[in-house]
Amino acid sequence: MKLNHITSNFRSIGITTALAIAALSPVFAQSSYSIQEKWKIGGTGGWDYLVADSSANRLYITHGGRVEVIDASTGKSVGAITGLKGTHGVALDDTGKYGYISDGGANAVIVFDRHSLQTVTSIPAGTNPDGIAFEPVTKTVWAFNGRSKDATVIDTATKKVVATVSLPGKPEFPVADGQGFIFDNIEDKNSIVKLDAKSPKIVATWSISPCESPSGLAIDRDGRRLFAVCDEKKMTVVDANTGKVIATPAIGDGPDAAGYDPKTHLAFASNGDGTLSIVDASNGSYKVVQNLTTLQGARTMTLDPATGKVYLVTAQFGPRPAATAANSHPRPSVLPDSFTVLVAGSK
Predict the structure, then answer these.
(1) Is 53 within 8 Å of 76 (Cβ atoms)?
(2) pLDDT in tens, 131-182
(3) The whole model's pTM is what?
(4) CB-CB contact of 257 with 245 (8 Å)
(5) Which residue, 62, 80, 220, 287, has most beta carbons within 10 Å?
(6) What are the structural domain ranges in the chain?
(7) What is the spatial distance between Cα 92 and Cα 44, in angstroms, rounded to a whole number?
(8) The 255-261 sheet, strands edge to edge
(9) Contact partners, residue 41, CB within 8 Å, separation at least 6
(10) Residue partners of 16: CB distance under 8 A and separation at least 6
């Protein structure tokens, strides 16, 4: 909606209504999102999370036993961190020097040099470290261990484990609020824990019902809002101060990751059904403003706050194996050399 259209109608609609229109979400003033590029990465194996490094204009993408390092403008390979067993997530420190990989297959956190992409050291963690985050106040890295149900806390100065914090259930994705606290979804308890990084310990556990099996988590640091993506096609918006559930906008099916853009006040959910749900978080309505078609299986994402671009990953799949007693929901095989990055953005 153009400003001159608003002002030209002041007399006809009244000043109160005009002011209300002028205060509408920034969503109305920007173009819809679209898939702008598709980058073929190739290779074999599955994948998990990815993270954007705005300062270096790079993407780090966990891909089986390696981490792909991609130029965030061109999609060209910069290199890779290799020799790993089963990667999940990547955390980046605030000096621009080191990165930290949760290698679930090795029960370790791998430290690498972000300039040379060489491994610096391997730090023992709990069983199957998955979600991982850098906490800027204490300069610590937190690796959340899915099977041992605890968090390994690493001092980035010494690259040593300084604490292990027990958790009430299976952890998923963590976020840091920049004030010394970390939040993490507890998938099998439908809850979020708040951890004090200085202690370190849990200081609150919040039920986020009706959210089922929360996975991805994003944070609006200024607005003190958490965005957890859940089964049953829900995003749950949570007050980061009180734990109160504020809204549950409907999103696509099978979400696994979330993002928040502080410039546009939009929250994102990447969904396995091949959609990217976009939620207006600017005015308390939490309305879904777009469900962008992506590709089947594109359920993990990262948002680059410098550019506002959203990066998603997926691949082509073979037939799904028959269910067994040991695995009632088997995943289909990934076709070789089909691994792809999608770039979504607005004009």
Answers:
(1) no
(2) 999 999 999 999 999 999 999 999 999 999 999 999 999 999 999 999 999 9
(3) 0.90
(4) no
(5) 62
(6) 1-30, 32-346
(7) 25
(8) 255-261, 266-271, 275-280, 287-293
(9) 61, 63, 68, 70, 75, 77, 313, 339, 340, 341
(10) none
